[in-house]
Amino acid sequence: MTIIAVTGATGHLGRLVIEQLKTRAPADGLVALARDPTRAADLGVDVRAADYDKPETLGPALAGVDVLLLISSDAIGQRVSQHRAVIEAAKAAGAQRIVYTSILKADATPIGLGEEHRATEAMIRDSGLAYTLLRNGWYLENYAGAIAGALASGTFIGSAGEGRISAAARADYADAAAVVLTTEGHAGQTYELAGDEAFTMAQLAAEASRQTGRALTYADLPQEAYAKALEGVGLPPPVAAMLAQSDVGAAQDALFDEDRRLSRLIGRPTTPWRAFVAGVLESL
Fold it and tell me: pTM for this one?
């Protein structure tokens, strides 16, 4: 039986991947890796302690693992060293393949987050292990807070200009990961994954207006002004700066893709962004 492990199993994406894997593979062949195993006790699979910052935990956690899903760390600025530790431990443990969640168009993206993803992709290629790179686009869930904020203020803000954003739901990306982890033919492949239908921020505002009956607009701000606005709602300056710079990248269509590889991979359309807006509004 093939043993499949998932890092970051207690995160939003990791939990969804585990649930999808349970529909495709025996639960006793699945391993959830987490810094705090007690938070993964409800997953119904083998749970092992694995901390990116404690390399001594990684070897035992990866013992017997055949295929590893390396979900990128959320520690921006520390990802390269953390990912290196996981890749080296996986190779030493005898893993056969690594699947990695990267960023859309990692090799060319102007988004600053791409730098650490490019470095990680290079380390994986150089490891000698079989690999699959899942270059995920933005999550629709990234815009839930923007919708709530616009309802309060009457305005969506950002620096994305008229950039087209091909976002998909986390569940869509989780489905893709589960497919790649449990089926053949993906070794050596790099998949650009994004939603079927793109939107601009102005279109997002117009749709939210239509669904609420309120006049909601989109205000496009210079990068520094947007970063300051994000700081004003409580985000730490480095996070605000990263988000603002990412929006400027979106203005250059860095988050746009029309290949529909994601929907082909999962065998269904991706979550419609208009339906996502409706779901957010219902939850508020």
Answer: 0.97
